[in-house]
Protein: Rhodanese-like domain-containing protein
Amino acid sequence: MKKRRLLVLLLALMMIVTFAACGSNGDAGDNGDNGDAGDNGDNGDNGAVETNVVEDAAMAYFAEMPDDVYKIAQDAFVEKVKAGEDMVVLDIRQPDVYGEGHIKGAVNVPWGADIAANLSKIPSGKTVYVYCYTGQTAGQAVATLNVAGFDAKSVNLGWNLGISKVEGVADVTVTEAATLDGNTTIDPDIQAAMDEYYNGLADVAGTTYANYKISEDDAKAALDAKDESVVFLSIRKAEDFAKGHIETATNIPFGKGMQESFNTLPMDKTIVVYCYTGQTAGQATAILRLLGYDAVSLNGGMGMEANAPSGWANKGFPVVTE
Structure:
């Protein structure tokens, strides 16, 4: 009897040891045979890690910036039109001025919600040239179009200060309307971001930040009031910043790689971005807003280039060198 009881105890002990060993090997085996830890090895859990398509595209805008900084000189643009180059041209001015005269082949997609609504109609595989009045809102549009996957460039100084001043432009100025015929697939997350960006213009219309811009007078008032909710960002070249800039402004020169300094900017303040005439500030403002910053561009920029009637300097506002 005692032998039998001893045998039973031995068998029970062996089962406990065996079970413990199997359980231990099972956990370790999960690592070895792509179980729990193996999910990491076979992209199980890692494969489910969310990627922010909009943020990645926005950061890539500067990381992959071409030498032409997404712009084309007005005379070079007119020459392309005259040569009949196969391209897409968007006139984002209002319909009434578009109807008075526009570049041959240009399609009117007025600045605002219409841009987001017509993304899928823009043909892919062609360079998209965008112009507005002076280039500032075209800069924003070009940035968003590139984020959406298009190869877009703005025409320097827009229609009023650039295109209309080019000799021979009358030969390619028409009143007949053109239409878009594309059928481009836009990533759903990108489309949602574009809808939010352009529909958001309605929320700022009539305010200090209409069109995600701020006037020189309103910017000066914020500076004079020492409004701590507003900061100034110069994206002019370092040497030009040193020669004179808006008081309290910091400097992140516009160009490839500037996104690496965005983490120095506050997320909880309005960032007034300014350049020379407002065009590259428009680009930077759009990208910053897509990244979650409350950015607006200064109307006319510093206003120190030829043909620029607006801007901080042209208003006679002071600059500092410290």
